[in-house]
Give the backbone structure.
Amino acid sequence: MVAMTDDTRGGEPRHPIGVAAERTGLSQDVLRVWERRYEAVIPGRGVGGQRLYSDLDIERLRLLALATSAGRSIGQVAGLPIDELREMVHEDEGSRRRNHGVLVDVAIPSTLIDEGVDFARALDAVGLDALLRRAVAMTGIHFFLESVAAPLLRRIGDEWHAGRLAPAHEHLASAIVQRVITSAMHALPLDLRAPHIVISTISGERHELGAILAAASAAAEGWRVTYLGADLPVAEIANVALATGANAVGVSIIYPDEGSAMLAELRQLRGMLPSAVSIYVGGEAGGDIAAELANDGIAVVRSLADFRASLKADAPRHAA
Amino acid sequence: MVAMTDDTRGGEPRHPIGVAAERTGLSQDVLRVWERRYEAVIPGRGVGGQRLYSDLDIERLRLLALATSAGRSIGQVAGLPIDELREMVHEDEGSRRRNHGVLVDVAIPSTLIDEGVDFARALDAVGLDALLRRAVAMTGIHFFLESVAAPLLRRIGDEWHAGRLAPAHEHLASAIVQRVITSAMHALPLDLRAPHIVISTISGERHELGAILAAASAAAEGWRVTYLGADLPVAEIANVALATGANAVGVSIIYPDEGSAMLAELRQLRGMLPSAVSIYVGGEAGGDIAAELANDGIAVVRSLADFRASLKADAPRHAA
DNA sequence: CTGTCATTGTCAATGGTTTGTCCAATGCTA
DNA sequence: TAGCATTGGACAAACCATTGACAATGACAG
């Protein structure tokens, strides 16, 4: 939700059309034709006549891209002032969520995920990487994490268990998804006064991707994230949280070694942290023990969307 | 906002054009023509008129190289002040980012590693990240991998074993080093006709960082890299190598489960691949069995520099 | 249902600009 | 003298802008 830092910016830095295309997910042709037909943006020009887009231009184009992909026609929205665009895109996003996902959400990503699986099957690392980066640019990071990355990983896991993909395919795809997520996360603005969460997986849990998805979600939600990777004893996690003054701790658990030990460890973690520090547990394994954990003051989140909503509700408690 | 390196630094050490070209990845012609046309840098001159570049010049050139490879035109960016360049390159890395102004002074690598350890000890993820990214821009990826990343990881491992750092510190630092390396690797140009190497660790070996260092080294050496992550059976690795028509396979082994099984697996891998496909084994565990492996046509590399030299020597055999 | 029309993304052809590389001549160094 | 660096000029490839055309889609009247 952090928009422009200050509005004096947005006019100064100038980007050539290639960068603008990359950042908006639109083709160079579209950029030019929207300008020619609708004057959607009017970029500056360099000495040789090349288009040079400001940050504000790029934000506007990205909003237009979102509006059109939500079903609006470019001719209708191209002339709108940027505030109205922002509002409109915001509303579209809300209504998409209210439709409970199945219809609109899946429209674009389903083919996206098929393509992703195809690239993985072909061991085409470059193609998969490009596809995912394009998806981030097109859909934004929230949508990407919840509706592209997570389903793609699940799908590839399924194909693997079904024997239609070899472990190598899964490894390759995981490495690339991980890389794209971390790079997108790293590109988010960072507010040092925002609430702070420590994310890891507990001892014995080596599947890192759930934790990475959670870390990126939290960062996209505006939180400061300290990411510790996989397989750490809870005492370590607690120490980091205390040392850094974190407001919350997130733990991803997918295939625990033994359920009971995990439960005990989580309780131990709870005991080591002040009650003002929230604890979130996510991942496949959490469901069975949700009720027990809730009694102990540990929140179980069932999906990334759930996690995000919890963080949003939790943030005001920790406001600086 | 910027605590620039005082002008004494960056002005002292002077490098001839050959060194500058090597370190920036730009040709000597480009270095000269950027100076002639855009005054991108104005190096000092030796007694006979030879160009002598300062460290600051070289950092600037590296940033310009990154900016142009991100799609910007040299004419647009050549005149920008170095702070803006840093910011711009940073943004391009992920696609969107506001610099919030964490500034780090980088001097020489030995103190650089000390600073890295300090950041890890303080659990300062942002500081460590900024430090490493600046180090990449200043020193170039080869130097960074061999003289910053690898020593830093080793040093942090030592501190951990000595009990002066907790596992959490090591985890945090590893995650950040990994992120910086992969993002630097991703920024390298990709030549589809270059020789191709598959990199992984074998089954039971879950320490990924050696493999990541190797993958980045190979990519920096100009090879196409298919990276498969950790803990894969050799049959899988071989299948990927065959399916993608790879010219070589790299395997990182740090703490093998059992030495004998590892040896057998490596021989099995050798047997599954045509002899034209080179096999490289690296990591701490390789030394003991180097002689035996050499007889089987498996090369043991003892360091990243060694690996890089081997790849360089090997590349012509696989030229398109 | 069909033909028409407007909308919209893509593509091709052409011409100008930018940029990396190459070359020849010259001078300095070892 | 051989080897390397510098300078200025030349050139081809890559990139970008402009224009016009085309195909796909959907709305709509008949």
Remarks:
- Residues 22 and 28 of chain B are 9 Å apart (CA to CA).
- Chain B touches chain A through 48 residues (CB under 8 Å).
- The beta strands of chain B are 44-45, 51-52, 196-200, 224-227, 248-252, 278-282, 299-301.
- Residues 1-10, 95-107 of chain B have pLDDT under 50 and may be disordered.
